[in-house]
């Protein structure tokens, strides 16, 4: 996450938009689900 943020913020015209799109649609939903599960476990 940190590396992607740096590439987007400082890469200017070198950003791979296909990779960003793939990350948004494939990786973030899975990450969201995992974080939600962790939060549910620790709230109990």
UniProtKB/TrEMBL annotation:
The keyword Nucleotide-binding applies. InterPro entries: HepT-like (IPR008201), HepT-like_sf (IPR037038), HepT_RNase_toxin (IPR051813). Pfam families: HepT-like (PF01934). Keywords: Hydrolase, Nuclease, Nucleotide-binding, Phosphoprotein, Toxin-antitoxin system. GO terms for cellular component: toxin-antitoxin complex. The keyword Phosphoprotein applies. One of its GO terms (molecular function) is nucleotide binding. Belongs to the HepT RNase toxin family. PANTHER family: RNASE MJ1380-RELATED, UPF0331 PROTEIN MJ0127. This is DUF86 domain-containing protein. It comes from Crenothrix polyspora.
